[in-house]
Specification:
The protein is mainly alpha-helical. 58% of the residues lie in helices and 9% in strands. It has a domain at 14-118: Alpha-Beta Complex (50s Ribosomal Protein L17, Chain: A). It has helices at 14-31, 38-55, 60-70, 73-86, 139-147, 158-184, 189-214, 218-224, and strands at residues 33-37, 95-102, 109-115. It has a three-stranded antiparallel sheet.
Length: 225
């Protein structure tokens, strides 16, 4: 029958297991938080919490009982003087276990055990709290993009319209004045020379036509003259 055999064996003999828990307890009392494997952390909690309860009453008997388990005078002094003053008002539950993932070497599940009263802020374990899958990773993002409505353009305020109206009115007369000036501008020298050149060409064509019609040679007329 296995009476009073509750607890993990941790792959150790009884003497080795007690030494391991005593060492972990001394480290936890000294540093207020330690990182170890999850089975060791679960085995350490029922080992050290009764000792912290005994440390609330500083008597010789309690000190001897705690020293019987811890086997360290420094750990006993720190437990009765430092830790007992901080956890004096707490009725129990002096430790907290937080899982921190697996160890890279052998994949063992790791955990951090700490004294609650020395750290009230839960540490960030790096997980976002959402379960991620390999399939359909982009569907949610596409739905969010399609569901987002297009932002409508903001209408112009009355003040803006009032500011732009005089500017537009000021530009309109100037544009009309420029067009009228272009229409009423006097002809330039180039434009007057073109009709004169055309008239001279017409006269030359008329003279040539008369000469050919008469049949007289212009050179002969010059000689007679």
């Amino acid at each position: 029958m296995r009476h009073r055999n509750k607890g993990a064996k941790l792959g150790r003999t009884q003497a080795h297991r007690k030494a391991t828990l005593a060492s972990l307890s001394s480290a936890l009392i000294e540093h207020k938080k330690i990182t170890t494997t999850l089975p060791k952390a679960k085995a350490l909690r029922p080992f050290i919490e009764p000792l912290i309860t005994r440390a609330k009453v500083d008597t010789t008997h309690n000190r001897r009982q705690v020293f019987r388990h811890l086997r360290s005078k420094d750990a006993v002094d720190s437990l009765f003087f430092d830790v007992a003053e901080v956890v004096g008002d707490r009725p129990g539950g002096y430790t907290r276990i937080i899982k921190i993932g697996r160890r890279p070497g052998d994949g063992a599940e790791m955990a951090m055990i700490e004294l609650v009263d020395y750290n009230d802020v839960k540490p960030d374990t790096g997980s976002s709290g959402r379960s991620r899958t390999r399939r359909g990773s982009g569907k949610g993002r596409r739905k969010k993009k399609d569901s987002t409505p297009a932002t409508a353009q903001e209408p112009e305020t009355p003040d803006t319209a009032a500011e732009e109206t005089p500017a537009a009115a000021a530009e309109t007369p100037e544009a009309a004045t420029d067009e009228a000036a272009v229409e009423e501008a006097p002809p330039t020298a180039e434009s007057t020379e073109e009709p004169k050149q055309a008239a001279a060409d017409d006269v030359a064509d008329a003279d040539g036509t008369d000469v050919e019609a008469s049949g007289a040679d212009p050179d002969d007329e010059k000689k007679d003259a």
